[in-house]
Amino acid sequence: MIIRPLARLNEEAAYAVRSSATAEDLPTASFAGQQDTYLNVVGPAAILEHIRSCWASLFTERAVTYRLRNGFDHRKVHMAVVVQQMVSPDASGILFTADPITSNRKITSVDAGFGLGEALVSGLVNADVYKVRDGEVVDKTVATKQLAIHASPEGGTRQQAIEPELQQQPALTDAQVVLLAQLGRRIEAHFGRPQDIEWCLVDGGFQIVQSRPITTLFPIPAAGDSDNHVYVSVGHQQMMTDPMKPLGLSVWQLTTPRPMSEAGGRLFVDVTEGLASPATRDGLLEALGTSDPLIRDALQTVLDRGDFIPAPSEDGTGGPSAGGEPAPIETDPAIVDELIARSQASLAAVEREIQAYSGPDLFDFILEDLQELKRLLFAPQSLQVIVAAMDATWWLNKQLRTWLGEENAADTLTQSVPNNVTSEMGLALLDVADAIRPHPEVVAFLQDVDDEGFLDELPELAGGREAQDAIRAYLDKYGMRCVGEIDITRPRWSERPTTLVPVILGNIENFAPGASRRRFEQGRQEAWN
After folding, report:
1. Low-confidence residues of the chain, pLDDT below 50?
2. Do 243 and 280 meet the contact criterion of CB atoms below 8 Å apart?
3. What is the pTM of this model?
4. H helix or E strand, kind and range, residue 16
């Protein structure tokens, strides 16, 4: 710890002693509220004592627990103690140059209350909340403020009740709020990122007490220009909302027809051009809205604003992924069989060829094979089949809801269809349960499994060999699958077979033998009916 001399200390003035903590290599990490702050400290001896107390608060239980929870190395966290001369504000509060609730970077949010800001920070009072956009207050909520915190003449602070007739009076005028928002934008421009700013209103003018980055905003994809952009999450379309690791993002990008935007460990598609073009807008809204109505609502809200979506470029059509559809395809189920056969032949070929490679050559082979994968994934005929199936599903659901009042009729019609891998996986796991159910010793063993090597121990049990063969046969066919599997870094079932054990045990307990065949036949019968 280095203590610098307190130059020009006014022994009769009061000071605030507060922390400024940072972590090496993490300049935007937030340590707000983790260390102690002391207000209205009077006299050199008291200031030095509070500097020591402030520095020591780096190691309180709260601060240490926060660092442990967030993975910060205690040895790489440093703290300066800032000593500032106190002011006696009429009002104070917090200014966010981006809305902390919606992450809207065009909205400035101001929290304000009477007296010192400690009342707001500690939650003793509700704040007046103002929203500012383009130099205008667009929303305002005035709270009932029953008390304020002020400096005590002898040092420290005291609570003071606010007169009843003043409790619902705004802490700031609209003009003051707009001026404060303009100051916030200047500070944001200086630091180059959205800021969380503490301020005081003293004698009609604003004093800025502190500014630090807002660390809770979801990042914005890098666009390379200053234009407006609308992004749709790829993960939400894939039922995968968790962030992906860098390797997962990298591999996914290698399999896409065009690069996707990245932010916060997630992938996004820029649909701005598709929304701007009248030729693709309705198709884009219909496709995304059918998949997720909330996404459609959000896109419609953006469109209704009228000023966000730019005019379409002269040659911009939005592209296939932004709402364009391939040409219709003839109604011939044999096409699907042919596409499946092509994929299976390609998989068999790569399984043979990959055996000859190792080390760096293996990675070169994988990169080359990804081109074959893209050829199959984005073959025009394959896309035609997918779009035809989706269109048929949507049309059936819409028309049968109108005609018969039935919801999601296509779900019933597609039960127990052949080659539905998702359904087949679930039914096959019921067959695994059938193979294990007759062997109580194996069932008891599986209930305590926590080691991924448990399969090697099964042959020692009565019926264990049959159980081992059943599980391994399942993994040979479906072991490459897992939850969140679009991220290649996610452990596969073949790597963590214990993931399947609770499902197998649940099937043993809740289903009778032969449930796989009965459920398949039941689904087929419901579809025929």
Report:
1. 1-7, 25, 316-323
2. no
3. 0.70
4. strand 14-23
